[in-house]
Amino acid sequence: MLLLNTAFFPPVEYFALIADGMIMSGDKIIPSEVFIEAHESFQKQSYRNRCRYLSADGVRDLQVPIIHDRHQIPIMEVRVDYSTPWVIRAERSISSAYESSAYFDYYKDELLSILDSKPEKLWELNMSILRFFLDKIGIRTEIRPTKDFTTEGKWDIHPKRTNTILKDMGLEKPYFQVFSQKYGFIPNLSIMDLLFNEGPDSIMFLKKV
């Protein structure tokens, strides 16, 4: 059982774990199965409402502001705060960072339309983004919210805690990045970094093909 927290533009390792369970044999594909923890409380400073990307100024964060109307908000009840124009700023940041990447123009309209739709709940926003990237990369999986709170099979992926997921999976390898000449290769950024730079070849990076 693979259990993950919901995440906003999740990192590469998040998708590597999902892709690992997908079996590819000739023309036959057996989907993986992933559970998303749906009964936890929201945690600040986590990938639940932020991501890391590479810009001309180095690694930067994108963050979704949420409405803090009480403590210990159940994750599926967390509301996105649209009182500030953060969507416009986020779209400008993404476009500025990736407009010169090889595949940004192929995916930008559909992806940015998810942000433009302004889902009320963070859960809805994150699930739409997750399904978008799974579809474009070609990862076949069954996504299921948990029925009860559990930690069985859970992977602790957090921006402030290092892990060896990609190394252990044999995926600690570089791919082309727009600003690599300036900063060198930066591993485990948001999945958008991989897709915008590698396009349909992203699946080969995640599946060791």
Describe this structure in words.
By secondary structure, the chain is of the alpha/beta class. It has one domain (2-206). The protein is 34% helix and 15% strand. The chain contains eight helices and seven strands. Strands 1-4-7 form a three-stranded parallel sheet, covered by helices on one side. A two-stranded antiparallel ribbon has the order 2-3. A two-stranded antiparallel ribbon has the order 5-6. A hairpin with a 2-residue loop joins strand 2 (23-25) and strand 3 (28-30). Helix 2 runs antiparallel to helix 3 (104-116) and helix 3 (104-116) runs antiparallel to helix 4. The radius of gyration is 17 Å and the shape is globular. The chain starts with a strand and ends with a helix.
Mean pLDDT: 93
Compute the number of strand runs.
7
Strand order of the largest sheet: 1-4-7
Broad structural category: alpha/beta
Straight-line distance between termini:
23 Å
**Percent helix range:** 25-40%
Count of spatially separate domains: 1
Radius of gyration: 17 Å
Number of helices: 8
Largest sheet: 3 strands, parallel
Strand content: 5-15%
pLDDT below 50 for ≥5 consecutive residues: which ranges? none
Spell the H/E element sequence: EHEEEEEHHHEHHHH
